[in-house]
Design brief:
The protein has eleven helices and 17 strands. By secondary structure, it is of the alpha/beta class. The protein has a single domain, classed as 3-Layer(aba) Sandwich (Rossmann fold). A ten-stranded mixed sheet has the order 3-2-1-4-5-6-10-15-14-16, sandwiched between helices. It has a three-stranded mixed sheet with strand order 7-9-11. Helix 2 links the parallel strand 1 and strand 2. The longest helix has 21 residues. 41% of the residues are buried. The mean pLDDT is 93.
Length: 331
Amino acid sequence: MDKEFKNKTILVTGGTGSIGSVLVRELLTFGPRQVRVFSRDDTKQYHLRESLGYPKNLRLLIGDIRDRERLLLAFDGVDIVLHAAALKHVPIGEYNPFELVKTNIIGSQNVIDAALEKRIKKVIAISTDKVVHPANAMGVTKLMMEKLFINANYYKGEAPTKFSCVRFGNVAWARGSVLELWKQQAARDGAIAVMNANMSRFFMSSAQAIRLVLRATALTQGGEVFVFKMPSIKLLDLAAIFLKKYFPDKKVRVNIVGNRGGEKLHEELFDGQDQHKQLLEDKELFVIVPNVEIFELKPSRIYYAGFRKVAQPQQYSSRDRIDRAAVVRLV
């Protein structure tokens, strides 16, 4: 990691978000030449700089990835881009679907175009488990973002840029996460809301999410999707663990409220039926290597030290990966 980020200029889109801000904090420990935060909220930028102690190699740029001209200016002289900017809330996205299109798809294409024009070396985009068999606008737009990033490696011409994605599950205690929401609900209402007693979700810690992004940046050869090997849990079991830890002496009801619009019962990290991809793994990561053939363009064979090919990939569903003990450590 020292070699990957030391003396480099790194830009984080969405750099004041719950993941983006932790990324910025971690990147500063590697001795980069400069870390640039690109985000829309000047108040969050102010608080981030205050919390970091005004590092001399931090730059704050107000901007929206929908604004291509602003991105071009922000990307000037950058080595690595970590693309965390997105609209991510499923129910709000169902009510405002084209706003998701403008940010998650068009904004992401703007990131790609600016990266090619400015000859950025590496661009890593943050995706979600909701792209597999998507059932909501957020998942659909994030799937299209993945397609844009993967396929950009085929038409980039002489540009040196490598584009890849990382695929997250639920990040425990991220802003807007279910654990944060439950803490507010329990304190305010004496009750928390669970959508479905059988619903399951993948969980990862903020530290694991950051490690996934940093390892992907170091490993990428262009076109991959990197996935952390995450445990899953039923939300009803998660609620019991949460209440026992944070409200042991208070009676808090668990209300089953029914699915929100666009939510699936279970999530998947990848689908074993997809024959157009190779799957590699080591102890903590999967690497999904697309086998896309566009006209006569064929990807180079990709090898990674320490990874092995998964001979018969299976569906990786939250329904089948229940590990209460692993998730307890994240709560």
